[in-house]
Backbone:
């Protein structure tokens, strides 16, 4: 599993590449997958910290 920080950088890259234009269907789909991965990584990191 990748860290939340790594996944977050990929999410930010989608936003930067869009440059204010509406996202494509592919970008929205990728964002959804990355968001799920990011949330799982955050949960994992919180559990490890506890």
Residues:
């Amino acid at each position: 599993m990748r860290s939340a920080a790594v996944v977050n950088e990929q999410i930010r890259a989608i936003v930067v590449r869009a440059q204010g234009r509406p996202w494509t269907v592919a970008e929205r789909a990728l964002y959804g997958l990355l968001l799920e991965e990011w949330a799982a990584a955050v949960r994992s990191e919180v559990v490890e910290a506890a």
